[in-house]
Amino acid sequence: MGGSGKGGNNQRKPFKRRDKGGDGWQNNQQNQGKKKGGDAYHAEKKRGAFDRPKWAAVKLPVDPLPMPDCSICGKPIKDIASAVTDRITGSPAHFDCIVSQIAENEKIEKGDTVTYIGGGRFGVVYFANPHDIRNFKVKKIIEWEDKGNRAEWRQTVADHFSLT
């Protein structure tokens, strides 16, 4: 009873690997010492069969983003990407100015806050515990920006960031 190590039967047949050329099976012992993939793989790679197009960086626009004035407070909007379209004029406004405007026009009770909920919509949201924002209830949804009618100034901002 011969054995080396953990027991079991060491009388297994050697593993057979299919030849890359496709002309049959080869014994694993014949392939020992050769590089993975064999010479045929490297020859194909050198001939260009596996070439991929080179990545070229997209050239960003040199001109800066516009800094229009807020239609509500009149101050310049330094971060135009976070601006929101004013419902009345269609021009950009500070995000905080819009939130303040909604808070003035809506009935805000204790525990309520005005929050952006995505898709151009704001909501009056109730938090039972303001320190735990995992539990909340949306009391009212306010459709602010029309999804179908995109403001012209947004296209300028989008063109600046997404060139592909």
Task: Please provide a written account of the structure.
It is a single chain. With about 160 residues, the protein is α+β, with helices and mostly antiparallel strands. Among the domains are: about 15-45, no CATH class; about 80-160, no CATH class. Helix content is about 20%, strand content about 20%. It is built from four helices and seven strands. The chain has helices at about 30, 40-45, 95-105, 150-160; strands at about 15-20, 25, 85, 90-95, 110-120, 120-125, 135-145. The protein has a three-stranded antiparallel beta sheet, covered by helices on one side. It has a two-stranded antiparallel sheet with strand order 1-2. A hairpin with a 6-residue loop joins strand 3 and strand 4 (about 90-95). About 10% of the residues are buried. The model has no long low-confidence stretch (mean pLDDT about 80).
SSE order and pairing:
Blueprint: E1 16-18, E2 25-27, H1 28-31, H2 38-47, E3 84-85, E4 92-93, H3 95-105, E5 112-118, E6 121-127, E7 136-143, H4 152-161
Order of helices and strands: EEHHEEHEEEH
Proportion of beta-strand residues: 15-25%
Query: What is the radius of gyration?
Result: 33 Å
> How many strands, which pairing sense, and closed or not: the largest β-sheet?
3 strands, antiparallel
What does the overall shape look like? flat
Q: Could you tell me how far the N terminus lies from the C terminus, measured between alpha carbons in angstroms?
A: 70 Å
Number of helices: 4
Quote the average pLDDT: 78
Oligomer: single chain
Low-confidence stretches: none
Helix fraction by DSSP (H/I, runs of at least 4): 10-25%
**Alpha-beta content class:** alpha+beta
Strand order of the largest sheet: 5-6-7
